[in-house]
Specification:
Two copies of one chain form a homodimer.
Chain A: E1 2-5, H1 10-21, E2 27-30, H2 41-46, E3 54-56, E4 61-63, H3 65-75, H4 86-102, H5 109-117, H6 123-146, H7 162-176, H8 185-195, H9 198-203, H10 211-214
Parallel strand pairs in A: 1-2
Antiparallel strand pairs in A: 1-3, 3-4
Chain lengths: 215, 215
C-alpha cells in the first residue's frame, strides 16, 4: 500500500494520523505541491483531480481523505475511528465534515493561489479570508464539543477518532495563519490531548522526511 | 423527525433525495437563507454553525448533509445508498467527497457573499470563480466515472446512491451558473438517469413548497 502525499497537506496529514493510530505500514510517495507535481500527467493518471492524498492498493486507487480513512476503518477495524452507535457516528462525522467540508477546502493551496493570481487579493486579505472560514467553522464545532456529555478527553469519548483526526491538522494550520483560538477552549484542550500522542506527533508536517529539505 | 432546510440549498437537496429514495416521512422546517434565518439565535440554538440542513430526531440534532445521509443509511438500510464492499464504498465516498468537499463549499451562499461584500469581487468574476471549482472538481469526477467498469446506469452500478445524491444538486447548480458541461458526458448521462426518477424529481428546489413564494 502506498500513500501519495505532501508534508503540508492537511488532508494527507489526516490519513497519516489514521495509519499511525491503526499501526498500518504504508509507503509514502512525495507529491511536491509547491513544485506543481500534482498537475503532472504522471500524477493525473493516478488521481485525475490532481489532489493529495491518494491511497494506492494492489489494484485500486482511492481518493479523498475521508473516504480513505473510512476504508481503513472498515478494513482494519481496531482501534475503531468511529463509535458503533449510529447517532454517535453521525455526531463524529458531523464534526469531521464541518472541518473537512466547510473550513479546509476554502483554505487550501489551490484556492489561496486563485485568490492571489486570478482575483489579485493581497496577502492581508488572504489571511483575513483564511481566518474567516476557520472562525465560521470553529464557531460551529466548539459548542458541539463544549455542550455535549459525549465529549471526553477527545471529541467523542476518551479515544481519538475521525473528528480528532480532522481537528488536529486544522488547528495546526490555524496556528500557522495566526487565527485567534482563544474563543475555542474545548478545541484547544482536545488538540493538546491529541498532540501528546505518538500517532499524532509522528504525522506532523515537520516530522515528515521531506520537511527538512522543503520546509 | 424534522429536517431544517431551504429549497435552494444543495446540501438540503441531497438529504431530500436520500429521504425520498428511502421513503422516509420527514417534516420540513424552512430556514430562509436569503432572509438570514440561519443567523437567528433560534436557529443557532439548533445548529451553532448556522448552516442547513440539520436533522432533528426526538432527542438529537444531526448536522452536515453527508453525516445525516450516512445516518439514514445505517438506520434505514433499504435501499442501500452505499455498496457493501469496502473498496466500492471508498469509490462512492470518494466521488461524493470531491463534490461535497472540493466543489460545493467553495460556491455556497456564504462564500459568494463574502467575495462580493468583503473582497469587492464583481459578478463576472464571481461567476468565473463558481465555474472554476465546478470544472476543477468535475475534471476529477468524469474520468473516475468514464474509466471504470463499476459505473453503471448510475455512479456505481445500476442503483442510485450517495455519489448520485451529491452529483445531481451540483449539476443542477452548475446549470444555473452556466457552467460548460460538454466535457462531462458521463456526468450528464447519469444526471439525466437520476432526473427521471421520482425521488430525485420531488427533491428538486422548484418542487419545494416555499419555491413558489420565494423563487
Amino acid at each position: 500500500m502506498k500513500i501519495h502525499g505532501y508534508f503540508r497537506s492537511s488532508a494527507a496529514y489526516r490519513v497519516r494520523i489514521a495509519l499511525n493510530l491503526k499501526n498500518i505500514e504504508c509507503d509514502t510517495v512525495l507529491v511536491n505541491l509547491q513544485a506543481g507535481d500534482q498537475s503532472s500527467p504522471a500524477y493525473r493518471a493516478i488521481n485525475p483531480q490532481g489532489r493529495v492524498p491518494a491511497l494506492e492498493t494492489d489494484d485500486h486507487i482511492l481518493v479523498q481523505s475521508l473516504a480513505i480513512i473510512e476504508y481503513l476503518d472498515e478494513t482494519s477495524p481496531s482501534p475503531p475511528l468511529l463509535p458503533s452507535d449510529p447517532l454517535a457516528r453521525a455526531r463524529v462525522r458531523g464534526i469531521a465534515n464541518i472541518i473537512a467540508c466547510d473550513i479546509h477546502p476554502l483554505n487550501n493551496l489551490a484556492v489561496l493561489n486563485y485568490l492571489r493570481d486570478d482575483l489579485s487579493v493581497d496577502e492581508e486579505n488572504r489571511t483575513r479570508w483564511y481566518q474567516q472560514w476557520v472562525r465560521q467553522g470553529f464557531d460551529g464545532v466548539e459548542p458541539l464539543l463544549a455542550n455535549s456529555s459525549d465529549t471526553g478527553k477527545f471529541c467523542h469519548g476518551d479515544s481519538p477518532g475521525l473528528a480528532d483526526i480532522c481537528l488536529v491538522p486544522q488547528v495546526f494550520n490555524a496556528q500557522r495563519f495566526n487565527c485567534d483560538l482563544s474563543p475555542y477552549p474545548t478545541i484547544a484542550r482536545i488538540f493538546d490531548a491529541c498532540a501528546s500522542l505518538d500517532a499524532f506527533d509522528k504525522a506532523q508536517p515537520s516530522n515528515q522526511p521531506e520537511a527538512a529539505q522543503l520546509g
